Amino acid sequence: MGPEQPANAARGAGTARICYNPAVMKAVILAGGFGTRLRPLTLDTPKPIVPIFDRPFLYYQTDLLRQVPEIDEVILSLNYRPDRIEARVGRGADAGLPVRYVVEPEPLGTGGAIKYASRGIEDTILVFNGDVLTTIDLQEVVRTHRDRHARATIVLTPVENPSAYGLVETDDQGNVRRFLEKPDPEDITCNTINAGIYLLEPETFDRIPDNTPWSIERQYFPSLVERSETFVAYVDRGYWLDIGTPAAYVQAHRDLMRRRCPRGPFASDHATMVHKAGPCDVAPDAQFHGPCFLGAGSVVGPAARIGPETVLGPGCHVGAGAIIEQTILWRDTFVDDDCVVRGAVLGERCRLDHHAEIGPGVILGNDSTIGAHSQVPGTR
To answer: How many whole angstroms separate alpha carbon 329 and alpha carbon 361?
Structure first.
């Protein structure tokens, strides 16, 4: 992995050298969305605190931000259910960095949200979209930004099917040339897309109107190109996933378990294929086929079978003879005796009474109940 441009002179009209403060940097995580694509899981659980295993997804991003010692604060730009996020995250003790909350008075778009969250800040800002799981080396991104004396740096990631995305085209020095919105096949000139990670200099925010919805992708970034300002790309070829859909949310767990994304509880070479995050009550004849994850306080009854790519959140109960495979259970969900659940996602405090069956692709929101002997057929 690494930058795909030499650290040579910047181009064009925006060539004034920027004086960076090497000791201080702020991080802004854009986490104000409604999480519509993940419903019903996000109806009362905002996306930043949707669990990956037993930790809020937000913490996987703050883990990365801790790579950069200059970052002394994470600013969460919020709009939807900020109270729930603050109640879970607090001031950042478990996140590993101090956390401050900025709540938009109304949805301001990505550009408007960044400007609103960064009021009074003059130092470089590292921006993360709130739904990106990645293994990027952020220190290399910072180094590229400073070596090029950039006003903005955008991280790009290559994709196999570029026709399905908006593309970002660069020149042979790594300067961003233009944005292509889902081009026709004959117009495709590259395979790199916006990865949702940016380094920005606040002095450029004067072009974003105050308290006005504004897009960083469609308005702010194109303005940098139009003015020939130093706007460079860092192409990262490591792991990258937008977890914003149910299929991607499940894929994230599978990739982490299979070490395709070497982060989280399965990343260590010494990790076992059946990971217990704390004390669990497991019957001697319960069967496990890893990789699978058991949150602290989980109960697995006699002759129950926990199949591969299964996650039991903290405090889950799996009754005698139950079968759980390729399924994610959020905390405190109760699966009674002889139930069968395959390929599903169940929110917090769900209850399945005895002999209930759930098929692949089913998603149950928090506090759902399925009666005894009921069947919820799969959606795929």
So the answer is: 13
